[in-house]
Amino acid sequence: MSSPAPLGIWLVRPEGEALAAALQARLGGDIYRPWMQPDLAQKTQFAASYRRHLQWIMVAASGIAVRFLEGLPVDKHTDPAVVVIDEAGRHAVALLSGHEGGGNILAYRVANVVGAAPVVTTATEALKPLTVGIGCRKGVPAARIEAAVVQALLAAGDYGMRDVREVATVDLKAQEPGLLAFCLQHDLPLRVFTRATLAARPWVTKPSDWVQQNVGLNGVCEPCALVASPRGALLVPKMSLDGVAVAVVLDKWMEI
Predict the structure, then answer these.
(1) Would you give the distance in Å from CA 230 to the centre of its chain?
(2) What is the pLDDT of residues 227-254, one digit of tens each?
(3) CA separation for the pair 188, 192 (Å, rounded)
(4) How many other C-beta atoms are found inside a 10 Å radius of the C-beta of residue 96?
(5) What is the mean pLDDT of the chain?
(6) Is 114 helix (H, G, I), strand (E, B) or coil?
(7) What pLDDT does residue 84 have?
(8) Is 21 helix (H, G, I), strand (E, B) or coil?
């Protein structure tokens, strides 16, 4: 038996074509169009394809995905990851194999492509209260980003890298090698916001002329962290170190 391919993208209706094309253009993968075989139920077709890929993106309602998966999962260490995104591209839900299969990270990657909200429900992530917003100069290495984050976490008090749920940045920095390497080293998902989204929420305590001239915003790290954590409050305002700006937001869900 051949090894599974990395990614499959399963559509349930032709209406999902545009979304699937956008995902494939950025993430790769094979697109499945089960309506091309009308004599065979989609659930049956999915079951036959389930083990062909290490990860799946299903453009569908979560209820459909649950029904399609009935009887297929065996073990979290071997099951393919499944992320479900609605046809409107609003939510990317890590439904299966969030940790072991990389479903949580995939949910963020899917969300970043279309501007969706990533939905991760595994207990380990739910208990992490911090979101770290990061802005950086071009070409800053991972070590300098880490040093700046460590400085901010020390200022936050009794917190460490273990308490960080996600990192947030602006689209201009989505492919910054040092930032990607830092997130990979610490197994942190990266959430990316468009400049238009951040411009509509100019929550900054220290406006930056440099950021305004180069990015078109008053700031990056604070609005990124606050937009990513809508229930949160600014725990550490913008701190800068060697070309890296960091802000830390604390999720206040227990106070709601």
Answers:
(1) 16
(2) 999 999 999 999 999 999 999 999 987 5
(3) 13
(4) 23
(5) 93
(6) helix
(7) 98
(8) helix
pLDDT digits (tens, 9 = 90+) for 49-61: 999 999 999 999 9
Task: List, as own/partner pairs, every contact residues 22-31 make where C-beta atoms lie below 8 angstroms and the sequence separation is at least 24, other chains included.
Answer: 22/113, 22/114, 23/57, 23/85, 23/110, 23/113, 23/114, 26/113, 27/57, 27/109, 27/110, 27/113, 29/53, 29/57, 30/5
Report the side by side order of strands in the sheet with 5-11: 30-32, 5-11, 53-59, 81-85, 91-96, 117-119
Element at 66 (helix H, strand E):
helix 62-69
- Six-digit token string for 168: 């947030």
The CA-based angle 32-90-103, given to 5 degrees, is 60
Is the pLDDT assigned to residue 33 strictly greater than 60? yes
What gap in Å lies between CA 142 and CA 176, rounded to an integer?
10
Find where tokens 């990317």 sit: 92
* pLDDT above 80 for 225: yes
Sheet holding 190-193, edge to edge: 190-193, 164-170, 130-136, 244-251, 232-241
The pairing of strands 5-11 and 53-59 is parallel
